[in-house]
Amino acid sequence: MDSRHELEHEKMESAKDKVIGAISETMDLYGLTRSAGKLYATMYFEDEMTLDEMRQELSMSKPSMSTSVRKLQEIEMVKKVFRRGSRKDVYVAEKNFFRSFMVFYCQMWDREVKMNMEAIHQAQKELSELIEDTNTSKETRQEAQEHYDLLERSKTYYLWLEKLVASIRNEEIFEFLPKPDQNELNHKNS
Amino acid sequence: MDSRHELEHEKMESAKDKVIGAISETMDLYGLTRSAGKLYATMYFEDEMTLDEMRQELSMSKPSMSTSVRKLQEIEMVKKVFRRGSRKDVYVAEKNFFRSFMVFYCQMWDREVKMNMEAIHQAQKELSELIEDTNTSKETRQEAQEHYDLLERSKTYYLWLEKLVASIRNEEIFEFLPKPDQNELNHKNS
DNA sequence: AAAAACGTTAAGAATTTATTTAATAAATTT
DNA sequence: AAATTTATTAAATAAATTCTTAACGTTTTT
Q1: For this UniProt entry, which segments traverse the membrane (chains A, B) (predicted)?
Q2: DSSP structure class, residue B184
Q3: Mean pLDDT within A113-136
Q4: pLDDT tens for each residue of B89-120
């Protein structure tokens, strides 16, 4: 009876491990280390976890769990929740991948747009000075102009990326690309 | 006259460096190292470059350039081009950020969907066996069912991601979110 | 108030990743 | 064919990251 139960448990773990492996392997896309990915994937199958439970489950140190969990919180893949009774901190994984997608990419793309637009702005200012300075040699002026135009054209992309972020935040993107409903799943299940 | 030219050059480099810095800093999003990012950003301002020019420009070794360039080629941010006359390999940077966006994210998201869908499929098979086995204990069966359902729901996301990739590949996404034209840029230029 | 539990920080060890130098292979020129 | 040029591979070194143990500060319990 006990070995029976043991067997069930093993099979369940084996099933979970397949998904945990895949998730943590693709987590590099989100700038996470393998262990942080594994931690998230583990939490994905649990209601909630404390640091000690994580440490035990992954056989790693508590500070390790602490830092991984913080990184996961930064991209909102994990939230701290309040549980009266337990004085340990309790964490839950975000199980809605749509939300994870939104938070992560909006965060990243915003950063990309902001940083690069700022740099472009500054660079263009300097290039303009070169172009407008009558002492500038002909060759230099031409090169400056070419770089200026290249940067100017690139703004199109950043502007577009900004609009993409907005359409994700306000969920308009789901009008263009609806979330599939459960029925659409089956014919994928061959 | 010569110091004049020196000054122009310095200002040009300073302008470029602002953008190069910003690009290489945001390149971590694309899983590139700082140096690979810097290399790409440097090439962005050049028509074409040989390994030796890269090495000189970044003051790094040639094997280093070789590996960075290969990584950049993998995500199609750099292409090798044929130039008769020169027997060195000649590379050019992809300057169209839209294309870089498409290639990179489609590649990554495809990988994510493929890996995870496959894992889900296998895991669900095992979970089904547990659920259908009449010897399985009640608690185990319930847990297996919960995990099964969780995985089933997650497919919605992967299916959506797949559609997103498709709409990027066939450019339908630009009907929903048009690329801004040059005119729209100016009011951003405050 | 003392002791215990908890999470985090700090410091050091271990592993991994990136970079360089040296060696090799392939191609081109003389 | 020998010598030179070019890119890549291999081995060694350097640098950066990740992880652990130990120490700290805070909160809670007794």
Answers
A1: none
A2: G
A3: 97
A4: 999 999 999 999 999 999 999 999 999 999 99
Give CA separation, B108 vs A159, A163, B74, B90, B158, in Å: 23, 21, 12, 27, 12
Q: What is the ipTM of this complex?
A: 0.92
* Chain A residues in contact with B45 (beta carbon < 8 A): 147, 150
Q: What is the C-alpha to C-alpha distance for residues B127 and B142, in angstroms, rounded to an integer?
A: 10
pTM: 0.93
Among chain B residues, the shortest Cα distance to A24 is held by: B116
The CATH number fitting domain A2-94, selected from 1.10.10.10, 3.30.450.90, 2.60.40.10, 3.30.2010.10: 1.10.10.10
Task: Say whether residue A86 is in contact with chain B using an 8 A CB cutoff.
Answer: no
Residues 3-42 of B with CB under 7 A from strand C: 33-36
Instruction: Pick one of 1.10.1740.10, 1.10.10.10, 3.40.50.40, 3.50.50.60 as the CATH number of B2-95.
Output: 1.10.10.10
The half-sphere exposure of A41 on its side-chain side, counting CA atoms within 13 A, is 26
Residue in B30, B43, B116, B150 to test binding to A, most A beta-carbons within 10 Å: B116
- In this prediction, residue A63 carries a pLDDT of 98
Chain B 29..68 CB hits on strand D (< 7 A): 50-52, 62-63, 66-67
Question: Are the CB atoms for B36 and B27 separated by under 8 Å?
Answer: yes
Q: What pLDDT shows up at residue B6?
A: 86
Decide if B118 touches A, using CB distance below 8 A.
yes
| pLDDT tens per residue across span A7-39 | 999 999 999 999 999 999 999 999 999 999 999
